[in-house]
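Design request, tokens follow.
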């Protein structure tokens, strides 16, 4: 049996992963489940999967989790130190799905085991960059991309003919504001921004999709995962979310991965890799599918331009971009700022902090924190 751990089990990706594990109980043994505030769901998952240990990242929720799991064989723990210890538990396959830079340290702890890391937390690779890739190489670990776009690229390059790749093309749904004017986006409400046309996701990534910061982060992630320069990574708007991404080869061929917009498909691909497993997801009917593509408008979605600038600048510029975006998204989710203020604060912080160098994880975390402080101060000064 393959041993597995889930970092972020109560989030959207984590719940989809749990669903797949429950479909194949004889193939997997669960070591650690790490969740957040929803300890009721965490306890339910731990019992259903007979997990070795369940951990809440918030220590003050530990008594509630202990009560929910009393009488079971599941070990219980809480707090940041417990999260890192559980993430470091030996497991053949670890789902890294703790959203944001806060998931970086647990992911790095899992990497040290030298096994498979299913990477759903794009901010970890964007923020840590070379530091994370060096740790992966040193440990002999394998990164398996879970983002639907990067998983599609991974599948489309299964023959590993990287030198023949002319271009990687990431597809984007365009989000709820695909056809909105700048004036409409300026007035956009939180409710409108959270209404994604095709995907069901957590709040942070849904807002990132609306602003296209998710695609900007994915450009950086693709460069890291596939060793591609920025000018060989393209983006196309594809509102149907059927073609999840594609690779253009030097002979003129395009190879793409298609499927229903269900995250269980890429998760299952990494969970069973290098084999495949059955899922109960809705099958795609191509006879009923329409495939449309269009170029993104970087005037309305400056996140794409900012991400490319950060990638070209290198060093800690992507760290700063990602951290400032998290602050901006959080402020928008609390309805303290307007939708377009997210990009504005990111650009301001990038201009102020530049691209400082990072030699280790401590440097990355330092500049991540500096970017958050700078973004918070900018919002205090510029947003009423």
């Amino acid at each position: 049996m393959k041993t597995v751990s889930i970092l972020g089990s109560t989030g959207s990706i984590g719940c989809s992963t749990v669903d797949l594990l429950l479909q194949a109980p004889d193939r997997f043994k669960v070591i650690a489940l790490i969740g957040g505030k929803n300890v009721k769901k965490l306890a339910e998952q731990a019992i259903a999967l007979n997990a070795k240990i369940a951990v809440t990242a918030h220590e003050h929720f530990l008594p509630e989790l202990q009560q929910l799991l009393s009488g079971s064989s599941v070990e219980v723990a809480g707090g940041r130190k417990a999260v890192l210890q559980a993430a470091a538990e030996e497991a053949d396959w670890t789902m890294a799905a703790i959203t944001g830079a806060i998931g970086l340290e647990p992911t790095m702890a899992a990497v040290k085991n030298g096994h498979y890391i299913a990477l759903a937390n794009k901010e970890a690779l964007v923020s840590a960059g070379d530091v994370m890739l060096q740790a992966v190489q040193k440990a002999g670990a394998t990164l398996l991309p879970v983002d639907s776009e990067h998983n599609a690229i991974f599948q489309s390059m299964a023959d590993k003919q990287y030198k023949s790749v002319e271009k990687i093309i990431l597809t984007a749904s365009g989000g709820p504001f695909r056809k909105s004017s700048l004036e409409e986006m300026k007035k956009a409400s939180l409710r409108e921004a959270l209404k994604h046309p095709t995907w069901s996701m957590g709040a942070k990534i849904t807002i990132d999709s609306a602003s296209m910061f998710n695609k900007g982060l994915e450009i950086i992630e693709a460069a890291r995962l596939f060793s591609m320069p920025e000018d060989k990574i393209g983006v196309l708007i594809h509102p149907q979310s059927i073609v999840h991404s594609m690779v253009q080869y030097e002979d003129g061929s395009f190879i793409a991965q298609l499927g229903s917009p269900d995250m269980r498909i890429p998760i299952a691909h990494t969970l069973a890799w290098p084999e495949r497993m059955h899922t109960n997801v809705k099958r795609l009917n191509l006879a009923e599918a329409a495939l449309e593509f269009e170029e993104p408008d970087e005037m309305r979605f400056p996140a794409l331009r900012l991400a490319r600038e950060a990638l070209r600048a290198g060093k800690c510029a992507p760290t700063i971009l990602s951290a400032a975006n998290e602050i901006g998204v959080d402020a928008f989710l609390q309805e303290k700022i307007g939708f377009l203020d997210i990009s504005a604060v990111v650009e301001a912080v990038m201009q102020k902090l530049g691209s400082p160098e990072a030699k280790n994880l401590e440097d990355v975390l330092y500049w991540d924190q500096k970017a958050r402080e700078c973004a918070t101060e900018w919002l205090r000064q510029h947003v009423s």
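Comment from the thread starter after seeing the answer: thanks! The chain has three domains: 2-145, 147-260+283-308, 314-384.
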